[in-house]
Automatic annotation (TrEMBL), chain A:
GO MF terms, alphabetically ordered: cytokine receptor activity; metal ion binding
Annotated signal sequence range: 1-26
Protein name: Prolactin receptor
Membrane topology: Single-pass type I membrane protein
Transmembrane segments: 233-254
Pfam families, A to Z: EpoR_lig-bind
Family annotation (InterPro entries): FN3_dom, FN3_sf, Growth/epo_recpt_lig-bind, Ig-like_fold
Key words, A-Z: Disulfide bond, Glycoprotein, Membrane, Metal-binding, Receptor, Repeat, Signal, Transmembrane, Transmembrane helix, Zinc
CDD domains: FN3 (cd00063)
Organism of provenance: Poecilia latipinna (sailfin molly)
Subcellular location: Membrane
Similarity-based family: Belongs to the type I cytokine receptor family. Type 1 subfamily.
Record's GO cellular component terms: external side of plasma membrane
UniProtKB/TrEMBL annotation, chain B:
SUPFAM superfamilies listed in its UniProt record: 4-helical cytokines
Record-linked PANTHER family: PROLACTIN, SOMATOTROPIN,PROLACTIN
Membership in a protein family: Belongs to the somatotropin/prolactin family.
Alphabetical UniProt keywords: Disulfide bond, Hormone, Secreted, Signal
Entry GO MF terms: hormone activity
Annotated localization: Secreted
Gene3D superfamilies: 1.20.1250.10
Single GO BP term: positive regulation of cell population proliferation
Protein name, entry field: Prolactin
GO CC terms of this entry: extracellular space
Source taxonomy: Eukaryota, Metazoa, Chordata, Craniata, Vertebrata
Classification via Pfam families: Hormone_1
Amino acid sequence: MYNARMRTHLGLVILCVLSAARVCSSTSAPESPRKFDCRSREKETFSCWWEPGSDGGLPTEYRLFYTQEREVRECPDYVSAGANSCFFDKKHTSIWAEYTMTVVATNALGNASEEFRITDVMEYVKPDPPVNVTVVVNSSAPSPFLEIRWKSPPDVDVRTGWVTLKYELRVKQNDSKEWKVNIGSETFFNFYNVYPGLLYMAQVRCKLDHGKWSEWSNTIFAEIPKNHQVEKYFWIFVFVFSLIPLLMGIYILLLKRNVVKQCLLPPVPGPKIKGLNAHLLKSGRSEDVVNALMGNQNFPPVAAWTEQVEDFLLVSDSDEWLLTDSFASEKKKDIFIIPAGLHLGLEIQCRDLSVDLNTWEKTDDSKEEAKSNFLNTEPINLPVEKHEFLNGEEMSIQPLANTSYVDIQQHPTLTDYSRVKEVNDNTILILNEEEIPHGLDAEEVKSEVSVPDDYSRVKEVNSDVVFLEKGDSTDGCCKKKEDHYTDWTNQKPIMPLESELSKGFCLKMIASGYVDSGPAFSVK
Amino acid sequence: MLEKKSLPCLLRPAPVVYLVAMCRAVPVNDLLDRASQRSDKMHSLSTLLTQEMDSHFPPYGRMQMPRPADCHTSALQTPNDKEQALQVSESDLMSLARSLLQAWVDPLAVLSTSAITLPHPSKSSISSKIQELQEHSKSLADGLDILSGKMGPSAQAISFLPYTGGTDLGQDRVTILNKFNFLLSCLRRDSHKIDSFLKVLRCRAAKLQPELC
């Protein structure tokens, strides 16, 4: 009996001990919460979270009490922010104000609390990321670019100035690792550093009032299309089509090149001489050549020089000769007149004379030989003078053409050609003074004039030929014209001789310097 | 930035008429925009300063930090949320901003001299930032003087908030650093207040230009 009671007591004790042990290991007062954190998304509200400690195995209740230097209040909203959180709405939020939070964990066995201090809600401001991020590829010229746009986070009030948002955008190629970053206050950005055919990704985040950056927004992708094939084909098309008429034009030109040649490069007529047959010349016979050029004229045989007595007309274009006493040999340009005892009775006005071959007329057979000397490519302009004489006599002068040769009708007293002392450039034959016959008005003859005995003593033949009648008032006859000489090659002798000549005449002749005594000059 | 020369035309000597014709006052919107840009810069600098201090040497535990109520400007009653701020009149907002700005002239000078000998690895960077802050503060104060002149007498009233911390931050290294930290946190808060008030003012003045908000 004693043993049975002992055993039941022992059993009860063991049971009690065991049951007591079970209670002690599973329940206790809760631990204080740890890790307190808060966040404000828009500078108007904020939420706080804590991490609960061990709950002691019993259902534990958490409560938050806060104070702002005044009375203690309890959290207004435990639900909106999730478990173990407290949400402070606008009414309960004070910026720049301090919060002292106390979180109390309570269960059946006890409670535990922890204090947290929020010095400034601004320290916990972290907005939501921007929304509605869109990317549009703008393909306008000259090169495409990305138009990236976004909107501010929905709950942030940007219209009153209470909040200032700053955005950060980053863009990169899909393959590369480097982001291109831009920070600004605008809600759009144009990104130009893109290449066709590549894929790009972009993200945006924002910051409120120099607080913390938000998370990155969703990534958006954009691909730059490759160069438009259509545009390329269009230009190829235009090029080909413009090439066809060009080729056709060239082909036509080639076909009608002769016509084109006629149009653009008309043939220049070759030189033609009347009466001249080029083919005849090619045959090469000299008489043909001569006949072709001279026109089948028969020259009279030229008499010997010595058989002829000739008059010489010296024509000068210069007054100087007449005025000055000394015959200066250095005055080469002067044309000296050797009076040849001419009493032509001519009253010929000095004029520009122009003549061409057609008017040339030979009155003497002796001209024949002289003709050959007339081959001169510089035709002298010696117009045939008619009806222009003072004395009313009609005379015509038919000077020799193309030469400096002026033939004068023979007069009884003539100085011989051989008496020419000097022939200047002005083609004046200077007769020897002594030989001058008395019949001549030798006044104007230079005293220095000396006529050589034969022609061979001609010193010089000038290019100018001026013929003047000696002795007459030739003062005003010829004006010295220096520039005559330069004009001679132009075959335009200028003889503005205005004075009247009673007896003399002035002639200015362009000549090659040859003065012949052939009777080529006839005065009728 | 805020031009002192842009006095309102009415303040110029009236007898000379052509001067009135010559003067071109900068519009209030523009002045407020410049002012808020300046205050934004100040707030940014003070935020960077506190971060720089904390990165190297957080001297305080969380609970030992001096409370904001200990700031010398805590006596000033300011709006603490958006609704309150939007209800304050423009003149009062301007007055508050100017009062806060004025209150920091002396403490900034103290900070500036202490920064040179601060026992902190980044003291040169800190010192230069404080000098920059001083410049911005002076410039902003001048500009707000002009602005407040356009807004009426209540805008020109400044609350007197003396700094009583003395010129010396302490003797030992820990005390110096703690005081420095505390002052910087007060400065950050007050510079943010100034910035917020001016930006609300700017947005209110630019009703026709919502992009300025």
